[in-house]
Amino acid sequence: MADGDNEVDVLILGAGSGGYACALRAAQLGLSVALVEQSKLGGTCLHVGCIPTKALLHAAEIADATREAESFGVLAKYDGVDAAGVLAYADGVVSRLFKGLTGLVKSRGIRVVEGRGTLTGSHEVTVEGADGTVTLTGRNVVLATGSTPRLIPGIEIDGTRVLTSDDALRLDRVPRSAIVLGGGVIGCEFASVWRSFGTEVTIVEALPRLLPPEDAASSAALERAFRKRGITSRTGTSVTGVTTSDEDGGGVVVTLSDDTELRADVLLVAVGRGPRTEGLGYEEQGVTLDRGFVTVDDHCRTGVDGVWAVGDIVPGLQLAHRGFQQGIYVAEQIGGLDPRPIDERGIPRVTYSRPEVASVGLTEEQAKEQYGDDGVATLTYDLAGNGRSQILRTQGFVKLVREVDGPVVGVHLVGERVGELIGEAQLVYGWEAHPDDVAPLVHAHPTQHEALGEAFLALAGKPLHTHS
Ligand code: NAI
User: Fold this and answer.
1) Where does NAD(+) bind (predicted)?
2) SS3 call for 267
């Protein structure tokens, strides 16, 4: 669309994963699109989420590999971590992707309007930017304003000792010790990075296990692996007080629900992310919110005709790839296509810690709730039997959950690099494949994919490298 044209087919508020994917697909379908963004194209995922944290995790892997090099017969000396160097590396990755995305959006003829947008009419967004105010209208409006770190009343974030993940990403030093509040995805990933960089790490998690939504076996394996790496997990524990101290080098003192005290250089608060929906005019224009999240139907439609919502503001998994998919889904509906609804259970989940935890579909517990205790069969294949995993020296497993005489309904993976296996797992889940359907498929040797192949074989009743 031309810059002066303030009426479009699709007006999108927020250019994160959900918003920009919607914009790209809508433009591809020949619709005119405006994308409103107060910060940078790419949103949380690109700038303070998925991409920079995975860069940190890769640097962490290199630190570990260097430290352990000699045990592989390679002579290398680990001299520590240059935090500024790690940040520069992560920034380089982000800026290359940002440049690519900016070019892509431009090449599709999408108008990007910089500034803070507010819903001022049911189909109208007013944007206050550096160059003044502009009002845009859209035949369709897509709300995609994302999320921010959840805070805990009484715990004040100061950005240097008490941190959110945004601060932790920009930390210009490696802390000697860290307390991580929240054993969810962010907590486990940062715990993993910091430990690889030499930090003493304690995770405090209110629920009885790390990564509570994962299969219990995955949580137990991660906790065990973390323990071996020297990461302490205090599960079933919450924090009752936090004070910062200027004495002894200045750190944080955290009081726990069992009346013990922990001290560390920094405290990372990673207790979830809340939707960014306040003060944006949503409710005023008739959009229904529930505890801050936008209420939508299966088609991502809000209760207001022609107003849609995607990504982290919609209840469910707060994952970039879910946002992408919802954005595309909405664009295709607006474009008059009839896309397949998104199966939330089929959305793959990966925690990129060392070891990685990945899953798709139902946990064993959820499957038993759905099909009954006798209606579910599981199979666990230990990575000890997988050549590639032995080469990598990783421990872990593939766990399959199937409906008895029915398809595979859940796949759970623990081990280094197993996040890369989730693609195959999700196809099996998504196609509702029976173990017998996939057992004949040949897996390359030696790969970690073979572990999945072995598990399918075993579940189909013809185990190869397992004791039956
Ligand atoms: P989360 O919901 O994954 O985990 C938060 C954890 O904090 C939960 O286990 C919860 O029980 C615990 N908790 C809450 N209040 C607590 C308290 N007062 N004391 C102790 N523990 C408490 O949220 P997280 O890790 O902050 O991540 C936010 C979102 O970002 C998630 O939806 C996550 O999926 C997404 N994300 C995804 C990544 C990935 O896909 N690899 C990476 C990082 C974030």
Assistant:
1) 182-189, 205, 272
2) strand
Residue pair 34/1 in contact by the 8 Å Cβ criterion = yes
Taking only the tens place, the pLDDT of each residue in 360-385 is 999 999 999 999 999 999 999 999 99
Which residue of 181, 186, 312 sits with most ligand 1 atoms within 8 Å of its CB, as the best mutation to test the pocket?
Answer: 186
- In this predicted model, what pLDDT tens digit does every residue of 192-232 receive, in sequence order? 999 999 999 999 999 999 999 999 999 999 999 999 999 99
Q: Are 208 and 214 in contact (CB under 8 A)?
A: no
This prediction's pTM: 0.97
For residue 197, give the H/E element and its range: none
Which residues, given as ranges, of the chain have pLDDT below 70? 1-4, 248, 467-468
Tokens of 282: 């949503």
DSSP for residue 65:
H
* 47 in active site: no
Largest CA distance in the chain: 71
Long-range interactions of 224-230: CB distance < 8 A, separation 24+: 225/354, 225/355, 225/395, 225/396, 225/414, 226/188, 226/191, 226/192, 226/195, 226/353, 229/192, 229/195, 229/354, 230/195, 230/200, 230/201
**Does 272 carry a binding-site annotation?**
yes
Among residues 47, 412, 434, 445, which one is catalytic?
445
Ligand 1 atom nearest residue 239's Cα: 19
Full set of structural domains in the chain with CATH: 7-147+275-344 (3.50.50.60), 162-271 (3.50.50.60), 355-459 (3.30.390.30)
> What is the three-class DSSP state of 167?
helix
383 in Cβ contact with 398 (< 8 Å): yes
- CA neighbor of 460 nearest in space, from 397, 418, 408, 415: 408
From residue 372, give the alpha-carbon distance in Å to each of 363, 368, 399, 429. Answer: 13, 5, 18, 19
Strand residue runs (E) in 56-212: 111-114, 116-121, 124-129, 132-143, 147-149, 162-163, 177-181, 200-205
Q: Is 278 annotated as a binding residue?
A: no
Omega of the bond prior to 435 within 30 degrees of 0, cis?
Answer: no
